[in-house]
Amino acid sequence: MAYGGSDHLPVDGSSLFGRIARCGLISIATGRTLLLLGFVFAAGTSTHAWAADSATDDESTKPDEAADVRPIDTVCKWGLLPGEPARNSIYLGMWSYHLWGDSDYRTDNQLIGGVYRGCYAGTFINSHDDRTTSIGWQRDFYTRTREDLRLDVGYRFGIMHGYDEFSIGNSKLFPLLQFYADVAYKQVGVQFTWVGQAVTAGFLIRFP
Description:
208 residues, alpha+beta, globular
């Protein structure tokens, strides 16, 4: 049925809606709005019923959980890396010892860093007194707890910037694979790491 030039809905007089519209109580704009709201309500009701059935059948596919996925989770919980995303932590301070090489290497490296949802980032003064930064993924592959004590063993995989001798071209960038062991009592502890010829130790603080 085509609409005419009137600002009221053309109607079928046999219906209640039609009789109301013929009386001029519902304009075309209002009628369209009511129809649209009706479709939205019907669609929302159907979606809600489907979501409730899905939640009953499979708890792992709850719409609320799917809606809570953040972009950082997509990146930091990258599934191709083995292990579990490391616990959220702040790292403060780092002291290093080189198993071989120059005895004049810097040992107080002044690290500030952390890990959040499986991604880590940090900056420190390297053994040649140059500022170095690193970013990447952090995974635990072994965990053991005893009351308030916890041991996490894992690795970091990422990229570093700041070492001339390991640089890819002149970029000062190079890949990193570092192993660590976190020993914590409740929310505080110490992290030990090993990479190449260096072993390090520093403090950590857990957070939710």
